[in-house]
């Protein structure tokens, strides 16, 4: 074990570390799955960026060399059994068996390697605000700077894209990936996810934005036409003027919806289920159906007598029912907050993954 930590310490001292990965959690159900570490330059100081990969999200922290050693010692072997260290000259591996027996391996590298000291900056660079569509869609200035009043929207779509990417990476797709964004509005999320995936994935991405407002759809398709020579190429993104209800996709692998209003989130979930989408990822907007029914009954109690409580009850009930409906239809479902509440109070994300496992429909129906 100490031979490994000696190698790590030396690579920090002589600045040869390229990256390090901690894997194989000791506890199989540990929410923290991996830690990815790399050196980064922050204001001209060498720091070490830790990306903590949890089952549903990533968390990034930066440490100096001493803190970095402390962090790694705290995680290995208590939390992770395997560590791979890549340096400019060596590949070093530490494997710790279940019984705590360490195996140390070190292999010189033959090829010439280089270091990348750039920071991930929350992957925002993969959504590049200087791309021409962002200005035409009204998110940035002509110079490609996100406008002050669009900062929160930009952050929202970046976070959403990050989560969709994480979920998609755990899903097997055959051939082209067909994605539909329901209630796409001005298309910010649609373009962001498209740009991100076409930059990163080697599969063909077919993206459709579904929006009921005709003038918006005409405008966005016109923007796509204007950007047809840009990179990444926008040849497989298209907007369809239709209600979600009537939209007929040729194939649907991933369904996304961000704040599709009124009961459009429910239409979207149904569309995903009926088309056997592998993934259904929705951040709901309103909860009008339940709200209307609660109000219609005219009854209130301690939980609903104040308007704000009634509203929150409607949200809880609606989203709980949406999650149950997904589960009933064979989707392994998670509910999470996708962004801080001060960005948007509508920050709940429902993630459904189609599963082959049998479900107890009767008990779900009872619930
Ligand atoms: C609040 S906006 C969200 C837009 C976009 N997803 C975003 O987050 O930037 C909701 C959009 O859904 C559209 N919409 C609402 N109901 C719809 C339906 N049944 N079918 C298609 N689009 C719908 C609205 O016209 C509106 O543009």
Please describe what this structure looks like:
By secondary structure, the protein is of the alpha/beta class. It has two domains: about 1-110, no CATH class; about 120-365, Vaccinia Virus protein VP39 (Rossmann fold, 3-Layer(aba) Sandwich). It has ten helices and 14 strands. It has a seven-stranded antiparallel beta sheet with strand order 4-3-2-1-5-6-7, covered by helices on one side. Helix 7 links the parallel strand 11 and strand 12. The chain starts with a helix and ends with a helix. S-adenosylmethionine (SAM) binds near residues 186, 264 and 285.
Topology:
Elements: H1 2-13, E1 17-25, E2 32-42, E3 45-54, E4 58-63, H2 65-75, E5 80-87, E6 90-96, E7 102-108, H3 132-137, H4 151-169, E8 177-182, H5 188-200, E9 205-211, H6 214-226, E10 237-241, E11 254-258, H7 264-274, E12 279-283, H8 288-297, H9 307-328, E13 331-337, E14 348-354, H10 361-366
Parallel strand pairs: 8-9, 8-11, 9-10, 11-12
Antiparallel strand pairs: 1-2, 1-5, 2-3, 3-4, 5-6, 6-7, 12-14, 13-14
In percent, how much strand structure appears in the residues? 25-35%
Helix content: 25-40%
Estimate nothing, just give the exact number of structural domains. 2
Question: H/E order of the elements?
Answer: HEEEEHEEEHHEHEHEEHEHHEEH
CATH-derived topology of the largest domain: Rossmann fold
Determine Rg (CA atoms, Å). Answer: 24 Å
What composes the largest sheet? 7 strands, antiparallel
| Oligomeric category | single chain
Number of helices: 10
Distance between the termini: 51 Å
Going by CATH, what is the homologous superfamily of the largest domain?
A: Vaccinia Virus protein VP39
Helix/sheet category: alpha/beta
Mean pLDDT across every amino acid position: 92
Number of DSSP-assigned strands: 14
CATH architecture of the largest domain: 3-Layer(aba) Sandwich
| Bound small-molecule species | S-adenosylmethionine
Q: What is the name of the CATH class of the largest domain?
A: Alpha Beta
Tertiary shape = globular
| Weakly predicted, low-confidence segments | none
């Amino acid at each position: 074990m100490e031979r490994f930590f000696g190698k790590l310490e030396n690579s920090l001292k002589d600045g040869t570390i390229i990256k390090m990965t901690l894997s194989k959690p000791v506890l199989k159900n540990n929410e923290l799955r991996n830690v990815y570490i790399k050196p980064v330059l922050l204001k001209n100081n060498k720091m070490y960026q830790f990306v903590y990969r949890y089952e549903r999200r990533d968390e990034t922290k930066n440490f100096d060399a001493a803190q970095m050693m402390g962090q790694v010692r705290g995680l290995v072997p208590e939390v992770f059994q395997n560590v791979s260290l890549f340096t400019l000259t060596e590949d070093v591996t530490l494997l710790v068996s279940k019984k705590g027996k360490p195996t140390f391996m070190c292999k010189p590298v033959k090829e010439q390697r280089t270091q990348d000291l750039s920071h991930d900056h929350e992957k925002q660079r993969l959504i590049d605000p200087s791309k021409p569509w962002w200005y035409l869609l009204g998110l940035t200035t002509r110079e490609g700077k996100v406008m002050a009043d669009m900062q929160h929207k930009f952050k929202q779509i970046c976070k959403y894209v990050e989560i969709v990417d994480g979920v998609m990476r755990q899903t097997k797709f055959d051939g082209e990936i067909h994605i539909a964004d329901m209630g796409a509005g001005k298309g910010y999320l649609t373009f962001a996810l498209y740009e991100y995936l076409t930059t990163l994935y080697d599969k063909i991405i077919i993206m459709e934005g579904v929006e009921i407002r005709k003038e918006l759809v005409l405008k966005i398709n016109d923007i796509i036409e204007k950007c047809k020579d840009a990179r990444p190429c926008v040849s497989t993104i298209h907007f369809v003027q239709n209600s979600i209800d009537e939209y007929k996709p040729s194939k649907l692998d991933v369904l996304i919806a961000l704040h599709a209003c009124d009961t459009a989130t429910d239409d979207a979930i149904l569309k995903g289920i009926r088309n056997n989408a592998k993934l259904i990822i929705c951040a709901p907007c309103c909860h009008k159906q339940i709200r209307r029914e609660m109000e219609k009954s005219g009854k209130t109690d301690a939980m609903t007598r104040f308007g704000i409580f009634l509203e929150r009850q409607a949200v809880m009930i609606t989203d709980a029912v949406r999650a149950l409906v997904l589960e009933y239809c064979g989707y392994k479902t998670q509910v999470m907050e996708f962004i801080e509440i001060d960005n948007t109070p509508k920050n709940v994300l429902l993630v459904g993954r189609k599963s082959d496992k049998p479900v107890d429909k009767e008990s779900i129906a009872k619930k």
